[in-house]
Amino acid sequence: MGEMWAKPGSLVAGAMFLWVMFQQYTPHQFRSYIEKYSQKLVSFVYPYIQITFQEFSEDRFKRSEAYVAIENYLSVNASTRAKRLKADVIKDSQSLVLSMDDREEVTDEFKGVKLWWASHKNPPKTQTFSFYPAADEKRFYKLTFHKNHREMFVGSYLNHVMKEGKAIEVRNRQRKLYTNNPSDKWHGYRRTLWSHVAFEHPARFETLAMEPKKKEEIVNDLTIFSRRKEYYSKIGKAWKRGYLLYGPPGTGKSTMIAAMANLLDYDIYDLELTSVKSNTELRMLLIETRNKSIIVIEDIDCSLDLTGQRKKKKETNEEEKKDPIRKMEKEGESKESKVTLSGLLNVIDGLWSTCGEERLIIFTTNYVEKLDPALIRRGRMDKHIELSYCCFEAFKVLAKNYLDLDSHHLFASIRRLLEETNMTPADVAENLMPKSVTGDPGTTCLESLIQALETAKEEARVKAEKEAKEKEEEEERLKGEKEGKEKEATAGEVKEKEASGEKEKQNGVAVKENGVV
Ligand SMILES: Nc1ncnc2c1ncn2[C@@H]1O[C@H](COP(=O)(O)OP(=O)(O)OP(=O)(O)O)[C@@H](O)[C@H]1O
Ligand SMILES: [Mg+2]
């Protein structure tokens, strides 16, 4: 037995020795010449063609669409044949999707001809002992087929894979809510710019409390937008639309965004601008977003000093200089984010905004008047939607949602009170939430709402009175100050006149004394 293995063993060792000698001592030109012809010889003997599909291209900006399509295609067409599989939960966290694991190979058939798919992973160049894959690890798929069928595979088969893969992606699509990672986490394991969770918000336009006419207008606007691919290309505009939602806190801005995503079946990218350090980072984040999505910047007035960055920075006043906490905050602010207004405008509206299509960009704010007009001009923010205090129509939607009531004898008083006072839909909704399981929830909740409205009305009256009084006092004070100044001025004038009269008199006496009359 030992003798049987000794011969091939020494043959292998001899071949390896010769190979090393060849590599070390043959001149470079000669070596490449030999390599070229040996490859020709191999291709003559080995009649297969291989195509590689990398997960990321060289610049690593974006996951390759071809790779993703192949991954989806193989998840359906290969998962019954592969032996090692990866599982992922999709679609409302209910169904499991299987895909090929790394370094697995499967066969596929197209028009009766066999071909092979293999998933590979390039080992990292730098060796680290870590639980997670290294940063320079690269995944790719390799397709192998016989060279006789080159035309068919390169043409129709690959088209078929791309089409199928994209269709599977749409079918399996679990909508996601993304948030941007800080840039120091953009390296290493999986290099993701965005983290996500499954998006399962129950908000719908039917349950959104607002004037029916306004609601219908928004729904129509969104529906038309989502069907207008050809129209946008005809008029030469990127297929995107900007919405500005503004209004006091608790009037349903965030709820409306969720309802929009549910209506159009889009993903949401919740962009936290304060953790984006520069305009370049902002652009990279945008490139990584996918089509059919809503990019949201909430409370845009708080995210950046977008109103002041164009102007010269305000001088810090003396008090701020002395206050160490305020000083630290200021320093932190200047280090935190260098995203500028022009950077943001470029992303919404400039050349970079055209990468990707079918996207909504939404800003929300409580203080629309604070924003730079350039940011919200039409074309950038195409539609401005004001979400305001609860009107009677909006209340009726909430009463239907929360209490299943279409009418009630207390509705009349609520209508009057809502006209007389301001209450946000969030506060109305809170009062309409049944707090007890016994009794008639409808009447109890409506009564509690009436009480809350009356309290709010009384508070508003007291506040208005206080403000009027303060205003009156301020006016009195200003008037007093003005009068005081006027009095001082007249007294000054009188004194001056008296002084000049005195002088003239003295001059007269002096002239008389000198006898020049
Ligand atoms: N128009 C509305 N229709 C239905 N529910 C609403 C409406 N407005 C507010 N709500 C309710 O009030 C809660 C708060 O609303 P939401 O978070 O949408 O307000 P917002 O305008 O985004 O406030 P903020 O400016 O503070 O972010 C929601 O959970 C929702 O249940
Ligand atoms: Mg909100």
From TrEMBL:
It comes from the Eukaryota. Its cofactor is Mg(2+). Residues 239-391 form the AAA+ ATPase domain. Belongs to the AAA ATPase family. BCS1 subfamily. One of its GO terms (molecular function) is ATP hydrolysis activity. Residues 315-334, 460-506 have a biased composition (Basic and acidic residues). It catalyses: ATP + H2O = ADP + phosphate + H(+). Residues 311-334, 460-517 are annotated as: Disordered. InterPro entries: AAA+_ATPase, AAA_N_dom, At3g28540-like_C, ATPase_AAA_core, ATPase_AAA_CS, Mitochondrial_chaperone_BCS1, P-loop_NTPase. Keywords: ATP-binding, Hydrolase, Magnesium, Nucleotide-binding. GO terms for biological process: response to stress. This is AAA+ ATPase domain-containing protein. It comes from Vitis vinifera (Grape).
